[in-house]
Specification:
Distance between the termini: 15 Å
Structural class: mainly alpha
Shape: globular
Radius of gyration: 10 Å
Largest sheet: 2 strands, parallel
Number of strands: 2
Strand order of the largest sheet: 1-2
Order of helices and strands: EHHEHH
Helix content: 40-55%
Number of domains: 1
Amino acid sequence: MLAHPERNGEVQAHPERLKRLVAAGTLVQVTAASLDGRLGRRARTCGLELIGCG
């Protein structure tokens, strides 16, 4: 399980890098506080993008 990757600067810059990990079976947990904006605009944008990618 990979917790709150949307808060990681490297993932924010290149969210597509998680695709291989997810395809290999890694579970990804996006923090709810990121999605509602409490953890900043970048975390929110990235979190929504990750969810949109499945």
